[in-house]
Amino acid sequence: MGKIVLFMHVSLDGFAAGTKGEMNWIHVDQEIFDFVAERITETNTALYGRVTFQMMESYWPTAAEQPGASKHDREHAAWYKSAHKVVLSNTLNQATLTNTTVIGKDYAAAVRKLKKETSGEILLFGSPTTAHALLAENLIDECWLFVNPILLGEGIPVFKGIKEKQSLKLLKTHVFSSGVVCLHHELRRETN
Over 80: is that where the pLDDT of 5 sits? Predict the structure, then answer.
């Protein structure tokens, strides 16, 4: 059975984006790219919300072909092209997309089925609204949070809509030279 692993940048005060979705505060560099590249090669399934998917789809299919494409662009574009993409959306047309499954209504049941049919991990990249919906349904199993050394004060929270207490077990940490800290947690369901 597969598990859903959330990959998200977060401010120190718990926001995934600014109030208008701004992400210009996120620090990325070759050290973080290499760390993430090594990590994502362990899976071939990616999960996105519609907004994040459209952002990815506008860049990654041709990123490796662009003049001056970086090592990260070439590697991630190859992974993106081969990965099975799953998108939570009520508006996208699956017939127009390559190697992509669109889940609309009754997403919780569809994601549970996806987890049963997938061996290994399903990586949820960013997509705070999708993360909120899946957290509310207890469908996220692990979090890889890249904590950026910045306070936003307000914005779109990483965690929202949780219906019951969820304990986290810290599995691993990694400190980058930039000051970004990756926290790898397993979510544990509380039973009363």
Answer: yes
The distance of Cα 84 from the centroid of its chain, to the nearest Å, equals 14
Please give the order of strands across the beta sheet that includes 100-103: 100-103, 84-88, 45-49, 121-125, 3-11, 142-148, 181-189, 166-175
Sign of the Cα pseudo-torsion (64, 70, 74, 80, in order): negative
CATH of the domain at 108: 3.40.430.10
Contact 144, 182 (CB under 8 A): yes
Domain count, the chain: 1
Residues near 190 by beta carbon (within 8 Å), at least 6 away in sequence:
164, 165, 166, 167
Angle at the Cα of 119 (from 58 to 161), degrees rounded to 5?
Answer: 65
Q: Which domain holds residue 140?
A: 3-189
Residue 189 has pLDDT above 80, yes or no: no
* Structure token digits, residue 109: 């049941």
- pTM to 2 decimals? 0.89
Q: φ, ψ for residue 179 (rounded to 5)?
A: 100, -10
Question: What residue type is 163 in one-letter code?
Answer: K
